[in-house]
G-protein coupled receptors family 1 profile domain-containing protein
Amino acid sequence: EIVFYVAVNGVIGCLGCLANVINIIVFVKQGFKDSVNISLFGLAVSDLGSLVAIVWESVCLNPLFFDSGSAFSTVDIHYLTSAVPHGIFVRIAWWITTFITFERCLCIAMPLKVKQIITPRRTVYIIVVIFVLTFLGMSPLIMANRIGPVFVPALNRTQVVRIYRENGLFIENLGLMFNISFQFGSFIIDFICTAIIIQQLNVKSKWRNESAQISGSGAKEGLATRDRKVVKMVTLISVIFIACLMPSCVNFLLGIVLAPDYTIMGRQQNLFLVIWSTIFTLESINSSVNIFVYYNMSSKFKAVFDDLF
């Protein structure tokens, strides 16, 4: 628990924050006339928010802070100020990633109409809606609680802890249901769009190759190479997203199958902590590695990055 939550996630979080600050600077320098840049800027902002929460988590769960005998419960403060905000920003990042995949799907399926359908102005609206809707949908996880002093017999002293409001459990469950539906929804849509993109690119690549052979224009190699680069980029983004999201989906399924033992205080406590620490680490990695994808697969990003740094 200490290794993952404090050491690994703390280091990844700090490096990821730096990487996303660089991403934001580069996208601002590139401008926002392109809808893709707007989406990637929104993704960088949400990734930065999730990683700031991860860094704060590594502080809250550090034994030096956790066992310091403070007047407040570090576990409860961590939940309200780190775990929930991290979850909000991660869900935002997932849906922005799904939107980017959907946009690329339209580019392949309707190349002549996509710029009329997804304009920069509409992209801004969509990104803002994703932010607002996610904040509103997961706000019950915070609204269900209040902070107050409670005597803790195990410590033989009073601590400031998280206390459920009236009907707090019901309110919190609303946020959890939204969280689960948002999570599985983004996973399913992204998976379908990625499958369509790969299938369409393979079909068009085959058609272009056959046309090049018939015409003898020598365009076969160049077109095939270009298509392979697009497929590689889309596949890489999808694999990173799905690989980092899958354990979280499995975790929710375990919570249903093993409930009520699968909790932080239940009989499956060790399994619960191991899986959650793995999930947070994968989410941190997912939010941190985009800079390498952009630098290696976007000539515009690479040019601006090299010019600035």
Q: What stands out?
A: The chain is about 80% helix and 5% strand.
